[in-house]
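Async update (no meeting this week)

Hi team, since we skipped the sync, here's where things stand on the single-chain job. The sequence we agreed to prioritize is pasted below, unchanged from the tracker. I ran it this morning and attached the output directly underneath so nobody has to dig for it. Comments welcome in thread, and please keep replies under the output.
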Amino acid sequence: MSSQTQTAGIILAAGASVRFGQLKQLIRLRGKYLVEWVLDAALKSRLDIVVLVLGHEYQSILQALGAKARHPQLEVVINHRYREGQSSSLKAGLKSVRQEYSSVMYLLGDQPMINSNTINHLLGQVREPEKDIWVPVFEGKRGNPTVFRRPIYEELMMINGDIGARNIIRKNSERVLYVEIKDPLCFFDIDSQDDLEDLLTRMP
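Output:
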């Protein structure tokens, strides 16, 4: 198996959606749940496996996803420590795949415009073996999803609190490959009702 086929996608969707005011993962957006948009893009891509990390009201989310939650390419991980912040979900997802997969791609469950083409474009950067972190950029703006190779796993397992991996990326700047993407909507995340309304006006 080549290293390109050993990438696990990890969708972070365990949060309590405090700022949004309701269960954000199950907001309906043009006929699909918010988390479903990300899940569909990941499952359609060349990711070898997809891990969906849930926490807050996970039973409701699994029930809403129905048969899709039992997709053969999908593994569901329940993070019972989600109240400790995003880092707990980063680590919960990584624990389930770190032994078998040589790289992981973190996707955010509230970025519904991510698509399989962008995911596959990032996966194609395997030709840069000296780089251990791949970050997508659009006109200088950095975003997600981000790929981390195995040499970074230990650092990921050491982060704590309600933070992602931004500090790890900054600390390892010489090991980062910035990958230009064509679609800035991929970076659009939904934190409020205003964001949702804004996205509806931007969607093609």
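Quick observations from my side:
The chain has a mean pLDDT of 91.
The chain has seven helices and ten strands.
Reply here if anything looks off.
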